[in-house]
Structures are given as structure tokens and as C-alpha cells.
Design a protein that fits this description.
Distance between the termini: 29 Å
Shape: globular
Number of domains: 2
CATH architecture of the largest domain: 3-Layer(aba) Sandwich
Low-confidence stretches: none
Bound molecules: tryptophan
CATH topology of the largest domain: Rossmann fold
Largest sheet: 7 strands, mixed
Structural class: alpha/beta
Oligomer: single chain
Length: 411
């Protein structure tokens, strides 16, 4: 168990070569099949663990709240050391949540919200502090499409969308890594000291002509995993960290955990989500270059309706007759898959799965239901975001203690 995760990395590289249809790393997610990614294979090749029913029951028992549908439905499906984090919580030592976003532009789509919606649920359920990194530096080094100042501005704009997910200002600290790094530079140094260039090259595929920022950055994403990076919140306490993230971010945290092991501090816990596919089907991406590929947080109800109707790939039969005979192929159907992510009502989702799968329900009906669900989510998000002023963003970014640390004794 404590064996070096570098070995797992090697195994992963080998396994990835055996999965030509699938590339998953922080800078590239390619799924060349028409179906959902084989997440079991991914777990195996990354060397993480599946979230079991026993974890879900444990979270439910500890929080005394119904668990989020992302957990119930296996959308957050994999982890590292989740039980150790829950042990710390149970022992009254608490833990904190760390997640982030690379602010690559002004417009976020519904898929971008997933880690934040989930982190917000965990914050409420466990009543633990949250820290959120906006890695403007990462995007500057990797995308290099505009100035650092512009990536900082995207960071502020994205912070508004993140805040609109409902984070509690007294329990949440948001920072731009280009501005905050000085406060955690001691930890950045430790990571940079412990990682060699050749390791980085293996993990992130860097080479000699890449700018130095790309080489230096992984330590900046790793450092917030140590509570000593946030003295204003944790003082000198050593507090365990849990990182909700898309599974593509795991290479960063495999690297982080390897260094934690060397530094003899508790390894960062991870909890990984699946990807929301683009509207055009599994194996397609969401992006600003093709606005029909995704539902953006700025979309109007009319745009949402048009995108779902015209562009969401259906697994239904070509003709009504064929559909009624064979039913819908749910393994490729985007509207149904989106409902798994966005429709909270389990009973209704199950009904749709059965009826649509049998061909009793038509694609148009499923799409109609998805349009209703998405329109509600997006318009409510827009209303909350409109209330987030620059002053509010500044408050979230202020260096200050958080009200729920240290944890109360009675959990
Ligand atoms: N690298 C992430 C991205 O490109 C952003 C990020 C920074 C992050 N710190 C994180 C994501 C911690 C998850 C957890 O979007």
C-alpha cells in the first residue's frame, strides 16, 4: 500500500499504451469510442479505488444527510484514501476540502460546475473548510493565448460562477495562484525539491522546449494539499485534505501523494468524478469553439432548448416503429446520460431508463424533460451569479480564519 506511487505511474503509462482509444491526463482527454469511457479500466490503470456502497453508507451515517446523487449514481466513482479522511473526521480532527479550476476563459459550461456543486454538498454535509485554487498561472503557461493579467481576470469572473454555487463565505477561501503563491511558497519549494524533471516529464509529457512555468506549476497545484499552506485558517495544525476533482487531474495528486510520503505527512485524499460528455455524444468534447457542443452558464432558455433538440445525440430508433420495437440504446444516448447528472429524482430517472430503454418513451419526451431540468439549473444559476459583486469576490479572497475551523467537538 505504502509502495511508491511512481511504480503505479509506470504501470499506468504501460496500461495507457494498451488503451489506444483512451487518453486521460490533465491536458488531454480523448475517448475514441462512441460509448462511455471504461472507468473500471481507468481505475485499474491509475491505481485508485472504486467508491463502494460501504463508503456511501459511511458518509450517510457520518453526515446524517442523504448523500448527493453524484455519489449515489457513481458519477463520483473513485478515490484515494477516502477512509483515512473519514477516520480523521470521525476522530474529531476534521479535514478540509481543496478543489480548483484553470480559468481558461470567460464562459463556463455546466460540466465545469460539477466539482463545485459536489464540493459545496460536502462542505454542507461535513461542515468543513473549503479552499479553491484558480490556477491562472497554469493556463498562462499552458495555453499562452493571452496575457497573465487576462487570465487573472478570467479567474475573477470564474470565481463569481463558483460562488454562485452557494459556498458559504465564512467557510470558504478562494485564491488566484499567481497572487497567493507567496503564502505557500515554503510548500511549493518542498514539492519542487522532491520532484525531478524526469518524473515530471513522465507524468505530464513535458520536453525541453516547454516553458519553465510548465515545469514549475505542478508544485503550485500540489501545495494547497498541505494545511500549512493556509496558516490564516489552520495555524500550525496538520489537517487532512480531500480533493474533489475530475479524474483527469489525478496525475497531479499521484505526484502530490508521493511527496507527502517522503515528507511524512498524511497523504492527500482524492475523490474523482467521471466526465460529462459533449452534446454530440460520448467521445466528443465540450468547448467554446463549437457552441453547440455544450450548455453554457450564459445560455438563454431558448438556446438550451435548441441545443438539446438539435444537437444532443439520441440513442433512439431511426423511425418510430424501430424505436418501439428495439427501444433506445442508452449506452450512447446523451439526453438520458445528462439526466443522470442533472435530474435529482431517482424514481423518475429509473422510470425514464426503463420506459425509454423499452421504446415506450420517445426521444422527444426525454429531451423535453432534460430541457426543463437544465433550464431551471441554468436560470437559477444566472440569478444567483448576478448577485455576486466584486466586493463579495474580494471577501472570499481575503486572508482570514474560517468559522468552522477548528471543528466543533461533538461530531
Ligand atoms: N488544473 C485544474 C484545471 O486545469 C485546476 C486546478 C487547480 C484544480 N487546483 C486544483 C483542479 C485542485 C482540481 C483540484 O482545471
Amino acid at each position: 500500500m505504502q509502495q511508491s506511487e511512481q511504480e503505479q505511474q509506470k504501470e499506468q503509462e504501460i496500461a495507457q499504451n494498451e488503451m489506444p482509444d483512451l487518453i486521460v491526463n490533465p491536458y488531454e482527454v480523448v475517448n475514441n469510442s462512441k460509448k462511455q469511457i471504461d472507468y473500471d479500466k481507468l481505475i485499474q490503470s491509475f491505481g485508485c479505488q472504486r467508491i463502494e456502497q460501504s463508503h456511501i453508507e459511511r458518509i450517510q451515517a457520518l453526515t446524517q444527510k442523504p448523500v448527493h446523487h453524484y455519489l449515489r449514481r457513481g458519477i463520483f466513482f473513485s478515490h484515494r484514501d477516502l477512509n483515512q479522511v473519514l477516520d480523521a473526521y470521525e476522530a474529531g480532527k476534521g479535514f478540509y476540502l481543496y478543489t480548483g479550476r484553470g480559468p481558461s476563459g470567460d464562459s463556463m459550461h455546466v460540466g465545469h460546475l460539477m466539482p463545485f456543486i459536489f464540493t459545496k454538498y460536502l462542505q454542507e454535509a461535513f461542515d468543513v473548510p473549503v479552499v479553491i485554487e484558480l490556477s491562472d498561472d497554469e493556463k498562462f503557461f499552458h495555453k499562452s493565448e493571452t496575457t497573465l493579467e487576462e487570465y487573472q481576470r478570467y479567474g475573477y469572473e470564474n470565481a463569481k460562477d463558483i460562488i454562485a454555487c452557494g459556498f458559504d463565505v465564512n467557510k470558504t477561501f478562494i485564491f488566484l495562484s499567481s497572487k497567493y503563491a507567496g503564502h505557500m511558497y515554503h510548500n511549493i519549494c518542498k514539492f519542487q525539491h522532491a520532484i525531478t524533471y524526469s518524473q515530471l516529464r513522465g507524468i505530464f509529457g513535458l520536453n525541453e522546449s516547454d516553458n519553465c512555468g510548465k515545469v514549475a506549476y505542478p508544485a503550485v497545484q500540489a501545495a494547497p494539499s498541505l494545511s500549512s499552506s493556509f496558516r490564516h485558517i489552520f495555524g500550525k495544525d496538520e489537517v487532512m485534505c480531500l480533493v474533489p476533482q475530475g479524474i483527469d487531474q489525478d496525475p497531479y495528486f499521484r505526484m502530490t501523494r508521493d511527496v507527502c510520503y517522503k515528507l511524512k505527512v498524511p497523504k492527500t485524499g482524492c475523490i474523482h468524478s467521471q466526465f460529462l460528455p459533449g452534446l454530440h455524444g460520448f467521445g466528443t468534447k465540450m468547448g467554446t469553439t463549437d457552441p453547440t457542443s455544450a450548455i453554457f452558464l450564459t445560455d438563454s432558455p431558448k438556446e438550451i432548448e435548441e441545443k438539446v433538440k438539435k444537437h444532443a445525440l439520441s440513442g433512439g430508433g431511426m423511425t418510430k416503429k424501430e424505436h418501439q420495437e428495439k427501444g433506445a440504446d442508452l449506452t450512447v444516448d446523451v439526453p438520458y446520460h445528462y439526466l443522470r447528472f442533472f435530474l435529482e429524482d431517482d424514481a423518475r430517472l429509473e422510470e425514464i431508463r426503463v420506459q425509454y430503454g423499452k421504446g415506450v418513451m420517445m426521444t422527444s419526451e426525454v429531451k423535453k424533460e432534460l430541457i426543463t431540468v437544465l433550464t431551471k439549473i441554468v436560470t437559477e444559476h444566472q440569478q444567483r451569479r448576478a448577485l455576486v459583486t466584486d466586493e463579495i469576490v474580494e471577501k472570499f479572497m481575503e486572508l482570514r480564519p474560517l468559522s468552522n475551523y477548528p471543528p466543533k467537538k461533538n461530531n
